[in-house]
Amino acid sequence: MNAPLPRQWDSLRQNRGRRLERAASLGLAGKNGKEIPVDRIIDLLEAVIQPGDRVCLEGNNQKQADFLSESLADCSPERINHLSMVQSVLALPSHVDLFERGLANRLDFSFSGPQGARLAKLVQEQRIEIGAIHTYLELFGRYFMDLTPNVALIAAQAADAEGNLYLGPNTEDTPAIVEATAFKGGIVIAQVNERLEKLPRVDVPADWVDFTVLAPKPNYIEPLFTRDPAQITEVQVLMAMMAIKGIYAEYGVTRLNHGIGFDTAAIELLLPTYAADLGLKGKICTHWALNPHPTLIPAIESGFVESVHCFGSEVGMDAYISARSDVFFTGADGSMRSNRAFSQTAGLYACDMFIGSTLQMDMAGNSSTATLGRITGFGGAPNMGSDPHGRRHASPAWLKAGREAYGPNAIRGRKLVVQMVETFREHMAPVFVEELDAWKLQKMMGAELPPIMIYGDDVSHIVTEEGIANLLLCRSPEEREQAIRGVAGFTPVGMARDKAMVENLRDRGIVRRPEDLGIDPRQATRDLLAARSVKDLVRWSGGLYAPPSRFRNW
Amino acid sequence: MEKLNFQFASAPASPAADPALCGVVGSGNLEILLNAGDLPNQCVVEIKTAARGFADTWQAVIGAFAAAHPAGGTRIAINDMGATPAVVSLRLAQALAEYQGGAQ
Predict the structure, then answer these.
(1) Are A167 and A157 a contacting pair, CB within 8 Å?
(2) Residues of chain B contacting A234 with CB distance shorter than 8 Å
(3) How far is CA A17 from each of CA A11, A184, A187, A267, rounded to the nearest angstrom?
(4) 10 Å Cβ neighbour count for A494?
(5) What is the mean pLDDT of residues A445-451?
(6) Comparing A123-137, A146-160, A407-421, which segment has the lowest mean pLDDT?
(7) SS3 for A6?
(8) What would you report as the CA-atom Rg of chain A, rounded to the nearest whole angstrom?
(9) Which of A104, A117, A223, B84 is most buried when burial is the number of CB atoms within 10 A of its CB?
């Protein structure tokens, strides 16, 4: 019999103790509680973070722990280096500064948006090693598996003297990050916007939090999901009409997620008008996994919407949300609690449809938002935009889609994954292409896989200004390809269609034109939108929606 | 500014008394004036466009329109400010529907 290996079984806890002692020896916290003076934040970070640590920097496309990120970037690279960063979003300049200044050299993340070009440059210069690009749920999952943080730097609305945290409506990723860190010997440091004697509610209990610091200014929040109805075009109205009549109504889609963009904003604004006229109120769009889109206000006020669970909040929507607690998830204090991990789970398993947009799509239906010279990542789209094979509960929409895909005796249903695009983007750049830029990007970055956002075999429908392609009904790769070309408009790949085959697909209802759906093009005007400006949205909300100043033009 | 002229065979449209006007001349948009023409089986189109070098695309867009809709016996004048094919197709469909007064 082998003797048990001699080893220490609580090294994480002991290591944590040494980190806390180092901080206490500098007069930081310990007996003085968890509150750190703002001018000692760098001393604290240099005391508790060790070279080679895995550090989670909270930040999403909405809430950002921006003060802690800037402070970490200002630490000495002699003291702190070789950090392995894990974070949902690489969005702020200071996120990239960490790598440029030599504090960190490895990154696992989900989305990089505005820093995509700087990130690509660092990868090419081999100054940053990308572990992987994830979806949010994958990354959260790995926090509890092989990417558990040693230190988490998070953002909260308020802390009390004990260190309890109130996260406010932008709860977002914080619960997942803190849980993984606090229960595996890690250190949790929170920047807070205010200190309160009594919190409105406790979102994170004090014994999961080690330090709090009052940030010089409130954490940044990007109004990412605000779309000004004034910018919605008539082509978008036409596409929204097609989606509502040809997909939402036909499948009876009640539970869904909308991607970000003007195409889906147009659908939201057509619910109280066009969809109501079609008699669809109560039959579609009742339950949502969605950020609080201001453009959903008219549908909520019209009684279309029963429930909305949110990934995060949206600037200016808090008072409206509080006043609509039947619809949104709110605490006893009245404010919303969002939760990205749970909302992503709802989007994956409890939604019958995802509808979103993309920058490029190939002839197999694969889509990507990666373009040359930029590494952008995926965020939540691949979770929302995939058919989860782990789903077991049935719903009419899921069953209908399943029978279309697998035949009348199907033993499983199918999620509707809809891509909605105009065939040309700005500057006449075609959305439909023979080969995605993602393949060139893969070679350039030396990545193992091309950055494909939504795989073609997960896509059920494509909506363009030319019509709807139902890929579920295609019975061969050739049919799929011609169905896609058949709605690709006047792009080169659209013009290269086999016209006879596309007409055959049209006869079988696989490709449908607006006239096939009984849509009168004269109705496709901005007059059909329930709100035509941000001011209209404010009016619909009874003055509760307070748009950020950049969206106010009155 | 580029001027383009096309003529496509098309099934006859129901003739209407009044011309139809659709859209506005603005960035990314276009104005379409649809009149009764002289040739019952032809759709005659005259385009003035701010975007040069897209003659092939125009030909494809107008050709597809004339094939998919009964647009014979019409004369169409277009003033374009860089509209995408999507906008052009929508405006043509709107103008024809307007011209025929719901006969579609």
Answers:
(1) yes
(2) 87, 90
(3) 10, 13, 10, 54
(4) 24
(5) 86
(6) A123-137
(7) coil
(8) 25
(9) A104
Alpha-carbon distance of A108 to B103, in angstroms, equals 59
Q: Which of A235, A520, A522 sits opposite B86 (nearest CB)?
A: A235
Q: Which of A465, A513, A522 sits opposite B86 (nearest CB)?
A: A465
Closest alpha carbon within chain B to A234: B87
Q: A-chain residues within 8 Å CB-CB of B104?
A: 515, 520
Q: List strand residue ranges (DSSP E) for A402-506, in order.
A: 416-420, 461-464, 467-470
CA distances (Å), origin A80, targets A42, A105, A185:
11, 11, 19
Min Cα distance B73 → chain A (Å) is: 21
Asked if A215 and A192 touch (Cβ cutoff 8 Å), the reply is yes
Between strands A255-258 and A307-309, the pairing is unpaired
How far, in Å, are A217, A359, A494, B19, B84 from residue A430 at the CA level? Answer: 43, 9, 10, 34, 11
Amino acid at A153: L
With contact defined as beta carbons under 8 Å apart, do A462 and A484 qualify?
Answer: yes
Grade residue A1 by pLDDT with cuts at 50, 70 and 90: low
Give the position of tokens 């040809």: A246
Do A495 and A482 meet the contact criterion of CB atoms below 8 Å apart? no
* B-proximal residues of A, 447-486, CB under 8 Å: 464-466
* B90 vs A424, A465, A495: nearest CB: A465
Nearest CA to CA, how far is A498 from chain B (Å)? 14
Q: β-pairing, A151-159 with A255-258? A: unpaired
Tens of pLDDT, residue by residue over A197-235, are 999 999 999 999 999 999 999 988 888 899 999 999 999
Q: Could you give the CA distance from residue A137 to residue A345 in angstroms, rounded to a whole number?
A: 8
Put simply, the chain B residues between 68 and 97 with a CB less than 8 A from any chain A CB are 68, 84-87, 89-90, 93-94, 97
Return the structure tokens found at A79: 């003291």
Q: Across the interface, do B94 and A515 touch by the CB < 8 Å criterion?
A: no
Identify whether the C-beta of residue A348 lies closer than 8 Å to the C-beta of residue A137. yes
Contact A521 B90 (CB under 8 A): yes
B21 part of contact set with chain A, CB < 8 Å: no
pLDDT in tens, A230-269: 999 999 999 999 999 999 999 999 999 999 899 999 999 9
Burial label, A321 (beta-carbon count in 10 A; 0-12, 13-18, 19+): buried
Cβ pair A252, A396 in contact under 8 A: yes
- CB neighbours of A316 closer than 8 A, spacing ≥ 6? A223, A226, A294, A545, A546, A547, A548, A551
Amino acid at A523: Q
Tell me the C-alpha distance between A416 and A36, whole Å.
Answer: 49
Q: Can you say whether the dihedral through the CA atoms of A198, A203, A204, A205 is positive or negative? A: positive
Q: What is the mean pLDDT of residues A311-316?
A: 95
A526 alpha-carbon distance from chain centroid: 28
